[in-house]
Hints:
Helix content: 25-40%
Shape: globular
Number of helices: 15
Radius of gyration: 28 Å
CATH architecture of the largest domain: 3-Layer(aba) Sandwich
CATH topology of the largest domain: Aminopeptidase
Structural class: alpha/beta
Strand content: 15-25%
Oligomer: single chain
CATH superfamily of the largest domain: LCP protein
Number of domains: 3
Distance between the termini: 68 Å
Low-confidence stretches: 1-17, 34-76, 494-503
Number of strands: 19
Amino acid sequence: MNQELETPPKSRFDDIYTEGEIIKEEFTRNKLRFFGKFFIFTLIFAIVGLTMFSSKGSGTGQKKEGLNWLNNFSLVGQLRQLAESSDRKLKGEERDRINILLLGIGGKNHDGGFLTDTMMIVSVQPSTKKVAMVSIPRDLTVPIEGMGWRKINSVSAYAEKENPGSGGLAASQSVSQIFNLPIDYYLRVDFEGFSKIIDELGGVDITVDNLLDDYRYPILGSEDNPDFYSRYEHLHVEPGLQHMNGSLALKFARSRHGVGVEGNDFARAKRQQKIIEGVKDKLFSMNVLFKPTLITNIINTYQEHVSTNLQIWELVKLWGLVKETKKDQIINKVLDNSASGLLVDRRGEDGAYILTPRSGDFSQIQYLISSIFGNAPSEVKKEILDEQATVELRNGTWINGLANKASTDLESYGFTIAGIGNASQRNFQKSVIYDLTNGAKPQSLALLKNKTQANISFGLPEWLATDLALGKADNPNKKNPDFVLILGQSADSTGSGAANKAE
């Protein structure tokens, strides 16, 4: 006969045992935490000690060159901060997004040494270890308090003129306000420091996408040479994997006058992102903790050529967050003036070349940056990437900026945006997907419909065929996209689909 087993009555000794186990577990956690801190403290102390004995010098009692950086901060205080950093949170960590503004300047040996030659927002998402890099072109015009509209690269220089040492902070505050994004940290490095750090690492390996031929790379100190052609050198970098020392890496990152596709600021911004990825890969591939002389040399360069509000313990913790980030977890964006870009060329009142937001304000750029990490499930994104689907977006309404906003969301799902513009017919109530593949890319079509709630059509109306033909007449090399998405008013009003999230 089957009988259910009865649970024995609970004894008062059970409670005592349970409480004892809890106390024991808590004691164990505290002990591990203590020894964890003690280990970190001891490791750092050992590194500093090894540095002292391995730095340059003959041991005659003279101050060693490699230890100058120690005079600039309290050693005990920094060590304690480092030992306790495992329990401390970085700014932005609570909202799962740490934003850092990277700035590159010429420095004291260059004309306009405080103008930012490079400006890049780097975002780290701690929960996923993803990193996003968004390059801001130096010709973008922005409002500067009390000065009207100026190029964004001048913010740092104006601040330095008023209050030396304030340029990095002023630039970070300006970027934060303009793009409606909290900037937690800034890091500004001059050209000499950039080059020295790369040399200390033994150079970096960079995959060069296109031939770089620049016949007008400026030679430092020869800017006013009476012989015009002696002011420049010929910079030549072949495509493929290239090992670059500090000097070549700097030239590769700064070149603006290359022949062909590399001859603009936007191509330059992409190269700069490659250099940063290369430095990251090299830094994390080396066993730096066991090379105290290298640490000392880098910190000496850091102290002399870098300005930042990052404390030592924050740098160490950032290191821990991004050291395992893989290439496919890095998102690269460049604000540009391409057909699908968010910027357009203009001339300022003084005739100077400037860039302004295509939409007339910064809302589309703000949306791009705020949603940079997207929310696409990785397995869905992989299917779309496998099909390599291209989408051309046309605004079929009079609602300003609808297509640009939709492009940001669709890119996060792996679609390649082939073009953005207005449809010649602007009376669409419902969005429509025109499938030019005749069903050959079903996964992409299904996701596109799901995210836009659009109707599907496998035939082109005559007016749209004419629009596409006119586009080809302007650019004979242009290929037809896989899909043409005409956005209707439903994309802005129904609350569903990729574009709706922008409003």
